[in-house]
Amino acid sequence: MLHTALRHGLIGLLLVTPALGAPTAEQRGKAYARANCARCHAIDRRSESPLKIAPPFRTLHQRYAIDSLEEALAEGIYTGHADMPAFELEPDQIHDLLSYLKTLE
Protein backbone atom coordinates (compact mmCIF):
# COMPACT_ATOMS: atom_id res chain seq x y z
CA MET A 1 0.00 0.00 0.00
CA LEU A 2 2.73 2.46 0.99
CA HIS A 3 4.80 1.40 -2.02
CA THR A 4 1.88 2.11 -4.38
CA ALA A 5 1.24 5.51 -2.78
CA LEU A 6 4.91 6.44 -3.13
CA ARG A 7 4.95 5.35 -6.76
CA HIS A 8 1.84 7.42 -7.55
CA GLY A 9 3.31 10.39 -5.71
CA LEU A 10 6.57 10.10 -7.65
CA ILE A 11 4.72 9.87 -10.98
CA GLY A 12 2.67 12.95 -10.07
CA LEU A 13 5.81 14.85 -9.11
CA LEU A 14 7.48 13.95 -12.40
CA LEU A 15 4.47 15.20 -14.34
CA VAL A 16 4.33 18.53 -12.48
CA THR A 17 8.06 19.31 -12.30
CA PRO A 18 8.58 20.41 -15.94
CA ALA A 19 5.73 22.92 -15.62
CA LEU A 20 7.29 24.37 -12.48
CA GLY A 21 10.58 24.96 -14.27
CA ALA A 22 9.06 26.59 -17.35
CA PRO A 23 9.53 30.35 -17.62
CA THR A 24 6.46 32.47 -16.98
CA ALA A 25 5.02 34.96 -19.46
CA GLU A 26 6.54 37.75 -17.36
CA GLN A 27 9.99 36.13 -17.49
CA ARG A 28 9.76 35.59 -21.25
CA GLY A 29 8.60 39.20 -21.69
CA LYS A 30 11.50 40.51 -19.65
CA ALA A 31 13.92 38.40 -21.69
CA TYR A 32 12.40 39.80 -24.91
CA ALA A 33 12.72 43.35 -23.58
CA ARG A 34 16.31 42.74 -22.51
CA ALA A 35 17.24 41.34 -25.94
CA ASN A 36 15.35 43.86 -28.10
CA CYS A 37 14.64 47.02 -26.14
CA ALA A 38 17.25 47.53 -23.40
CA ARG A 39 19.75 49.09 -25.79
CA CYS A 40 17.66 52.27 -25.57
CA HIS A 41 14.98 51.82 -22.87
CA ALA A 42 15.30 51.21 -19.16
CA ILE A 43 13.38 47.97 -18.74
CA ASP A 44 13.46 47.75 -14.95
CA ARG A 45 12.13 49.75 -12.00
CA ARG A 46 15.22 51.88 -11.30
CA SER A 47 17.71 52.45 -14.09
CA GLU A 48 17.82 55.34 -16.54
CA SER A 49 17.24 54.74 -20.23
CA PRO A 50 20.54 54.52 -22.13
CA LEU A 51 18.95 56.74 -24.81
CA LYS A 52 17.57 59.77 -22.97
CA ILE A 53 14.57 60.24 -25.30
CA ALA A 54 13.49 56.60 -24.83
CA PRO A 55 10.91 56.38 -22.05
CA PRO A 56 11.63 53.88 -19.27
CA PHE A 57 9.26 50.93 -19.48
CA ARG A 58 8.18 51.55 -15.88
CA THR A 59 6.51 54.80 -17.01
CA LEU A 60 4.66 53.48 -20.07
CA HIS A 61 1.48 52.84 -18.05
CA GLN A 62 1.38 56.58 -17.28
CA ARG A 63 1.10 57.33 -21.00
CA TYR A 64 -0.88 54.34 -22.25
CA ALA A 65 -3.13 51.64 -20.89
CA ILE A 66 -0.81 48.66 -21.22
CA ASP A 67 -3.51 46.49 -22.80
CA SER A 68 -4.02 49.16 -25.47
CA LEU A 69 -0.48 48.51 -26.73
CA GLU A 70 -1.44 45.06 -28.00
CA GLU A 71 -2.70 46.28 -31.37
CA ALA A 72 0.26 48.60 -31.91
CA LEU A 73 2.70 45.79 -31.17
CA ALA A 74 0.89 43.48 -33.59
CA GLU A 75 0.76 46.02 -36.40
CA GLY A 76 4.25 47.32 -35.78
CA ILE A 77 5.63 50.16 -33.73
CA TYR A 78 6.84 53.02 -35.88
CA THR A 79 8.10 56.23 -34.31
CA GLY A 80 9.00 59.67 -35.53
CA HIS A 81 12.70 59.26 -34.80
CA ALA A 82 15.20 57.23 -36.75
CA ASP A 83 16.85 55.56 -33.77
CA MET A 84 13.94 53.23 -33.01
CA PRO A 85 13.67 50.31 -35.38
CA ALA A 86 10.28 49.29 -36.74
CA PHE A 87 9.20 45.88 -35.54
CA GLU A 88 6.21 43.59 -35.27
CA LEU A 89 5.73 40.97 -32.59
CA GLU A 90 4.06 37.59 -32.78
CA PRO A 91 0.95 37.08 -30.60
CA ASP A 92 2.86 35.06 -27.98
CA GLN A 93 5.57 37.70 -27.81
CA ILE A 94 2.96 40.43 -27.37
CA HIS A 95 1.31 38.53 -24.53
CA ASP A 96 4.66 37.97 -22.82
CA LEU A 97 5.86 41.56 -23.21
CA LEU A 98 2.56 43.03 -21.98
CA SER A 99 2.62 40.62 -19.03
CA TYR A 100 6.06 41.92 -18.15
CA LEU A 101 5.08 45.57 -18.59
CA LYS A 102 2.18 45.07 -16.20
CA THR A 103 4.64 44.00 -13.48
CA LEU A 104 6.24 47.45 -13.73
CA GLU A 105 3.03 49.42 -13.08
Automatic annotation (TrEMBL):
Keyword Coiled coil included in the entry's annotation: no
InterPro entries the UniProt entry points to: Cyt_c-like_dom, Cyt_c-like_dom_sf, Cytochrome_c550/c551-like
Domain Cytochrome c, first and last residues per copy: 24-105
Source species, domain of life: Bacteria
Molecular function GO terms recorded: electron transfer activity; heme binding; metal ion binding
Gene3D superfamilies: Cytochrome c-like domain
Signal peptide: 1-21
UniProt xrefs under Pfam families: Cytochrom_C (PF00034)
Keywords: Electron transport, Heme, Iron, Metal-binding, Signal, Transport
Iron-sulfur keyword on record: no
PANTHER family: CYTOCHROME C-553-LIKE
Protein name: C-type cytochrome
